[in-house]
UniProtKB/TrEMBL annotation:
Annotated TM spans: 28-51
Pathway: Glycan metabolism; pectin degradation; 2-dehydro-3-deoxy-D-gluconate from pectin: step 1/5
InterPro entries: Invertase/methylesterase_inhib, Pectin_lyas_fold, Pectin_lyase_fold/virulence, Pectinesterase_Asp_AS, Pectinesterase_cat, Pectinesterase_inhib_dom
Chief localization: secreted
Substrates-to-products reaction catalysed: [(1->4)-alpha-D-galacturonosyl methyl ester](n) + n H2O = [(1->4)-alpha-D-galacturonosyl](n) + n methanol + n H(+)
Protein name: Pectinesterase
Alphabetized UniProt keyword annotations: Aspartyl esterase, Cell wall, Disulfide bond, Glycoprotein, Hydrolase, Membrane, Secreted, Transmembrane, Transmembrane helix
Lineage start: Eukaryota, Viridiplantae, Streptophyta, Embryophyta, Tracheophyta
PANTHER family: PECTINESTERASE
Molecular functions per Gene Ontology: enzyme inhibitor activity; pectinesterase activity
Organism: Pisum sativum (Garden pea)
Length: 662
């Protein structure tokens, strides 16, 4: 374990400080050794039990079954598609060879990657699908182009899972791996969703071709989910956080990202690119500006879009990382277009503004699709980017306004308007302090706010709507409005601590088809207020839960998104739990980190710069030192998001993970 390196004046004669340093080293060493032993014990115990039970239950199997490695049998027992799991892994593992779960996980990714790559080839210009010479309408043709692009995204996420799983301790990236594998499965499902109205022969052909890819991706997800649960069951994962590979630290840790935490005016003045319709910027369109953003850059690129309405369909491509777009206000700077389903555009392609590049931030800007309710699906904003933040934005359309497609997303203080299923998708998303504003639909239509699309029980996806206002935009007294309907079998949506207007239907929720919902959904309402918040007459579905505070916490920014690690870089205000008072560690914590030369800041007139990061003031635990130690012990029950130490005229800032010490 690395230690703080000395910085500033070091007083070698300070024997007291030396003793603190020595004791701290000893304490951390004990923690480290104990943790390593614990990892081995957990995986040996849990995995060994699985293997033993599997062997015992299969004593009378035929020779084919006996040719399987017991480790393959054990790991495949946790998957949804056991046959495809065993069939794909058994050729890669010799009889009698016992592999660790993490090794089998990596093999499962490899076979899923091979299958997904075959899917990309199938949809390519000269692939097997192209040779079928089908007579297709334009919408179906575009849906098939989307399938190729979606399969490429699935391959990208499988590659990321394989690379990160190899570079880091698997335990350091469990949540990331669950997210990327969930997204990979979502991409493949979206391909099929886009072909719902295609001919049965076409759908059957594609379903058959994608069968291996979807099943093997699901298997990898099941394995990593099981590993995560095994780790959580003995509560040691937080202890291991200090062993992460520095190269794998989230982008928000980088000093370049921290420099973004400035006022809106500062961001606009120092923007890398300025867009203005009147010609006073470098570009007149956002799309032109994005073409000049470097690919796969670890440096944040800030694009300031001046006031006005920009009539364009914008795509932040998957290679455009760390882009921030800031406008002059959600109702002042607007991006507007009108692609829609009725006129021949698949839902996935209809977005006015679509984001694929990771670590995207949007502030003070609006997104509109003006197609109108009669055009059915017409998306204003679609996001497939991981760790995306939207702060003080407006999303305005009718059906399918906000497509929270995949990965991890956070929305704060946004206005979201729509009619049918107007917040939908299969990401892990938290909407916080937003105004959700159903408006007048077509005659005869009902409003449904959400349609969450979870298709696999192991996906870490869902919609969490916290501390929002759900109010009518206009007079909706004659329109039935529901909190949502279950788009897929494992649809997961939680409304909590929000204010419901009286226009919400007493039933609360609407079936997708028929008069009920799958038992496998997870819907919940927790601590909501307002005239429409009573649950007395809600639908009596098995999947509509009464949840406790402990269960509700699982859908907060901190637990659901791991958001306290990456949202601060956006400058967005956020609440990481149910209440700020509940945010504290039960154990004493030891914070450690490595200083790097570009990681310090001059003292400012006030501490507002640091407050924007959600940092508590020093108060009674302010630390005054003239040298650095290997560790700094923070008093019990203090939430630590940053360590800032004042040395004469300099504040040196570390961002690092916490070693939890019991």
């Amino acid at each position: 374990m690395s230690s703080f390196k000395a910085y500033g004046k070091v007083d070698e004669s300070d024997q007291v400080m030396f003793e603190v340093q020595r004791r701290s080293r000893k304490r951390i060493t004990i923690i480290s050794l104990s943790t390593i032993v614990l990892v081995g014990i957990v995986f040996a115990a849990v995995f060994g039990t699985l293997a033993h039970n599997n062997a015992r239950n299969n004593d009378n199997n035929d020779n084919n079954d006996q040719s399987l490695s017991s480790s393959v049998k054990a790991i495949c027992d946790v998957t949804l598609y056991k046959d495809s799991c065993e069939r794909s892994l058994s050729p890669l593992v010799h009889l009698g060879q016992q592999l660790r779960p993490e090794e089998l996980f990596k093999l499962s990714i490899q076979v899923a990657l091979t299958a997904a790559s075959s899917g990309v080839e199938y949809f390519s210009e000269h692939g097997a699908f192209d040779e079928m010479n089908l007579n297709l309408d334009n919408r179906t043709k575009e849906a098939l182009v989307n399938c190729k692009n979606l399969l490429e995204l699935a391959v990208d996420h499988l590659n990321s899972s394989l690379v990160y799983g190899g570079k880091s301790s698997l335990l350091d990236v469990l949540e990331d791996l669950e997210t990327w594998l969930s997204a990979s499965g979502t991409y493949q499902q979206t391909c099929m969703d886009g072909l719902e109205e295609a001919e049965e022969a076409l759908k059957s052909s594609i379903t058959t071709n994608l069968k291996d890819s979807t099943e093997l991706t699901s298997n990898s997800l099941a394995i990593i989910t099981w590993l995560n649960k095994a780790a959580t069951s003995v509560n040691f994962r937080r202890r291991l956080l200090s062993f992460s590979n520095k190269d794998q630290q989230p982008n928000w840790l980088h000093s370049k990202g921290r420099k973004l935490l400035q006022t809106d005016n500062d961001l606009k003045k120092k923007a890398d690119i300025v867009v203005a319709r009147d010609g006073t910027g470098k570009y007149r369109t956002i799309s032109a500006a994005l073409k000049n953003v470097p690919d796969k850059s670890d440096k944040r690129t800030v694009i300031y879009v001046k006031k006005g309405t920009y009539y364009e369909n914008v795509r932040v491509e998957k290679t455009k990382w760390n882009v921030m777009i800031i406008g002059d206000g959600m109702n002042v700077t607007t991006v507007s277009a009108n692609f829609n389903f009725v006129d021949g555009t698949p839902t996935f392609s209809s977005a006015t503004f679509a984001v694929f590049g990771k670590n995207f931030i949007a502030r003070d800007i609006g997104f509109k699709n003006t197609a109108g309710p009669e055009k059915h699906q017409a998306v204003a904003l679609m996001t497939s980017a991981d760790q995306a933040v939207f702060y003080k934005c407006s999303i305005d359309a009718y059906q399918d306004s906000l497509y929270v497609h995949s990965n991890r997303q956070f929305y704060r203080e946004c206005n979201i308007y729509g009619t049918v299923d107007f917040i939908f998708g299969n990401s892990a998303t938290v909407l916080q302090n937003c105004n959700i504003l159903p408006k007048q639909p077509m005659q005869g239509q009902q409003n449904t706010i959400t349609a969450q699309g979870k298709t696999d029980p192991n996906m870490n996806t869902g919609l969490s709507i916290q501390n929002c206002n759900v109010l009518p935009f206009g007079n909706l007294s004659s329109v039935k409005t529901y909190l949502g309907r279950p788009w897929k079998n494992y649809s997961t949506t939680v409304f909590m601590q929000s204010n419901f207007g009286s226009f919400i239907s007493p039933n609360g929720w609407l079936p997708w088809v028929g008069d009920s919902a799958p038992d496998t959904i997870f819907y919940a309402e927790f601590q909501n207020v307002g005239a429409g918040a009573s649950t007395k007459d809600r639908v009596k579905w098995k999947g509509l839960k009464n949840i406790t505070s402990k269960q509700a916490k699982k859908f907060t920014v901190k637990s659901f998104l791991n958001g306290d690690k990456w949202i601060p870089a956006s400058g967005a205000t956020f609440k990481s739990s149910l209440s700020e008072e509940e945010e504290s560690y039960e154990e004493e914590v030891v914070v450690r980190g490595n200083r790097q030369d570009n990681h310090d800041y001059r003292v400012k007139e006030d501490i507002s710069f640091y407050k924007t990061m959600g940092v508590q003031e020093f108060q009674d635990w302010k630390i005054d030192v003239d040298r650095f130690f290997d560790v700094i012990v923070i008093p019990e029950n203090k939430q630590v998001k940053m360590v800032a130490i004042r040395l004469n005229s300099t504040i040196v800032v570390w961002w690092d993970k916490l070693v939890v010490q019991r």
